[in-house]
From TrEMBL:
<keyword id="KW-0378">Hydrolase</keyword>
<keyword id="KW-0479">Metal-binding</keyword>
<feature type="signal peptide">
    <location>
        <begin position="1"/>
        <end position="29"/>
    </location>
</feature>
<dbReference type="InterPro" id="IPR007484">
    <property type="entry name" value="Peptidase_M28"/>
</dbReference>
<keyword id="KW-0645">Protease</keyword>
<keyword id="KW-1015">Disulfide bond</keyword>
<dbReference type="InterPro" id="IPR045175">
    <property type="entry name" value="M28_fam"/>
</dbReference>
<dbReference type="Pfam" id="PF04389">
    <property type="entry name" value="Peptidase_M28"/>
</dbReference>
<comment type="similarity">
    <text>Belongs to the peptidase M28 family. M28A subfamily.</text>
</comment>
<keyword id="KW-0964">Secreted</keyword>
<dbReference type="GO" id="GO:0046872">
    <property type="term" value="F:metal ion binding"/>
</dbReference>
<feature type="domain" description="Peptidase M28">
    <location>
        <begin position="106"/>
        <end position="311"/>
    </location>
</feature>
<keyword id="KW-0862">Zinc</keyword>
<comment type="subunit">
    <text>Monomer.</text>
</comment>
<dbReference type="InterPro" id="IPR041756">
    <property type="entry name" value="M28_SGAP-like"/>
</dbReference>
<dbReference type="GO" id="GO:0006508">
    <property type="term" value="P:proteolysis"/>
</dbReference>
<protein>
    <submittedName>
        <fullName>M28 family peptidase</fullName>
    </submittedName>
</protein>
Length: 317
């Protein structure tokens, strides 16, 4: 998540319902065939997500301790994600832009098939700040979106809508990559995006469970998932307008997403509801060198990763 302006975000098992339509009540009336059940989202392996995080940590360690815009660690991170997607059968492209005198890159991955006039997107920023490896911010969202995309490929999922995944550059400089992408689209292309889902920090070590309240349908989808787990959520306000959903929202695209908290402090009421430590930040290592693989809550990462898959499947059918 970009710097604030002053000091300042097993599934609820996706229920597949088959609808039996009868042909009427008269004797001998034909019965219509049962409609196919909706596809259920797979469980996303937390171990697989953490394996991606380990790769991002190794990349940062080998490249000056960070994965920041314009630095070799960022491009190596993008190359890692792209190779995983290419091997899984996605159509990928790298979009180039310039920020602060350095070249930046977005990675866009399309899953073949689905209605190109109805696009569901899921995205996250891949860059870190220069002061650390950025494993929670935002290796966590990037890795969970990657593993969800790979789950699409492994399952051979063929949704009604078209699926697109994205990893943004230079978010930490002010949402530069995502804004560049949105600005590159004509109005007709923007109108085809039926929803953009954003995931920026989902494994905070003192986690909260926050849901964006921008689009009612997307918001309800996430709330339904967490309600199925018996977890109360709160509306995300800490990161409002500070992550990559903002350029999409400003362009009229319906947006939503999840967040586990940054440098705001957990209240006593939140600690009673979610566990953790009241009076401490949701992520004490926010934008710091200690944002490493040790700075992740496995339970929050697992729940939020499953929620991502749940929403991608529900909203694309």
């Amino acid at each position: 998540m970009k710097l604030p302006l002053s000091g300042r975000a097993l599934t609820a098992a996706a229920v597949a319902v088959a609808t039996l339509v009868t042909g009427g009540s008269t004797a001998g009336a034909a019965t219509a065939p049962t409609q196919p059940a909706a596809a259920a989202a797979p469980d996303i392996s937390a171990a697989a997500v953490k394996a991606h995080l380990a790769q991002l940590q190794s990349i940062a360690t080998a490249n000056g301790g960070n994965r920041a815009h314009g630095r070799p660690g960022y491009r190596a991170s993008l190359d890692y994600v792209k190779a995983e997607l290419d091997a899984a059968g996605f159509t990928t492209r790298v979009q180039q832009f310039t920020a602060s005198g350095r070249t930046g890159y977005n990675l866009i991955a399309d899953w073949p098939g689905g209605d190109a006039n109805e696009v569901v997107m899921a995205g996250s920023h891949l860059d870190s700040v220069t002061s650390g490896p950025g494993i929670n911010d935002n290796g966590s969202g990037s890795s969970a979106v990657l593993e969800t995309a790979l789950a699409v490929a492994r399952s051979g999922y063929q949704p009604t809508k078209h699926l697109r995944f994205a990893w943004w550059g230079a978010e930490e400089l002010g949402l530069v990559g995502s804004r560049s992408y949105v600005n590159s689209l004509g109005s007709a292309e923007r109108a085809k995006i039926s929803g953009y889902l954003n995931f920026d920090m989902i494994g905070s070590p003192n986690p909260g469970y926050f849901v964006y309240d921008d689009d009612p349908t997307i918001e309800k989808t996430f709330k339904d998932y967490f309600a199925g787990l018996g977890i109360s959520t709160e509306i995300e306000t800490e990161g409002d307008g500070r992550s990559d959903h903002a350029p999409f929202k400003n362009a009229g695209v319906p947006v939503g997403g999840l967040f586990s908290g940054a440098d705001y402090r957990k209240t006593s009421a939140q600690a009673a509801k979610w566990g953790g430590t009241a009076g401490r930040p949701f992520d004490p290592c926010y934008h710091s060198s200690c944002d490493t693989t040790a700075n992740i809550d496995d339970t929050a990462l697992d729940r939020n990763s499953d929620a991502i898959a749940y929403a991608v499947w529900e909203l694309s059918q």
